[in-house]
Design a protein that fits this description.
- This protein has six helices and nine strands, in the order ααβααββαβββαβββ.
- The chain is globular.
- Helix 1 crosses helix 3, helix 1 packs across helix 5 and helix 5 runs antiparallel to helix 6.
- A hairpin with a 4-residue loop joins strand 4 and strand 5.
- The termini are far apart.
- It is an alpha+beta fold and about 190 residues long.
- About 40% of the residues lie in helices and about 25% in strands.
- The relative contact order is 0.14.
Length: about 190
């Protein structure tokens, strides 16, 4: 077993690495970055919370090629963190707590896309575009401000990407966000 002091030090080191990337100077530097490494860093950051709330996080890469994009690393991490925040909220408040919550991130370097999916209740089709507007939320009153997805979409645009919802699942609910770095339409 790993001593508690070592676990605490490692946890603190993870948090400092993330905070450094999210700092204002970290957000102002646009450089080539490996998206798989950044996704794994953020997953590691959320590991303790996911274990506490019985939420499994999986990351898959469709190809062996590196997924390199020129972006502001702190802003990319903020986009993902906003998606994680929403997923954690809905999965922690799920109707059936006996079903394991799942967050799946799939990266496709060839298509230049990242798919972020959870098995929460989803977003109804009639709200699929409105959730990206500022001050719009599907959370109960006083549970959300309706800024997370608005900010995530703005940051995606600033970094040459588009953030949108994948088509609805069979039940008519949207559960997958797509971060697309292609210049072509989705």
């Amino acid at each position: 077993a790993i001593p508690a002091a070592t676990r605490n030090r490692r946890s603190l080191e993870k948090r400092v690495r993330i905070l450094d990337e999210l700092s204002i100077p970290g957000r102002q530097i646009r450089k080539e970055s490996n998206l798989v490494e950044l996704v794994e860093l953020l997953c590691e950051f959320h590991e303790a919370k996911s274990l506490r709330h019985n939420i499994k996080i999986s990351v898959k890469s469709k190809s062996k090629a590196k997924f390199i994009e020129t972006l502001e690393r702190g802003q990319f991490l903020q986009i993902l963190d906003n998606l994680f925040s929403n997923s954690f909220y809905w999965l922690m408040n799920r109707f059936d707590a006996s079903v394991e919550g799942q967050i799946s991130i799939e990266l496709d370097a060839g298509a230049r896309t990242l798919h972020f999916t959870d098995n929460g209740p989803g977003i109804p089709a009639e709200r699929s575009e409105a959730v990206f507007d500022q001050f719009v939320t599907t959370k109960p009153p006083r549970e959300g401000r309706g800024l997370g997805l608005y900010i995530a979409r703005r940051l995606a645009t600033e970094n040459g990407a588009r953030l949108y919802l994948d088509p609805a699942d069979e039940d008519g609910m949207h559960r997958t966000f797509v971060l697309n770095f292609n210049k072509e339409l989705p």
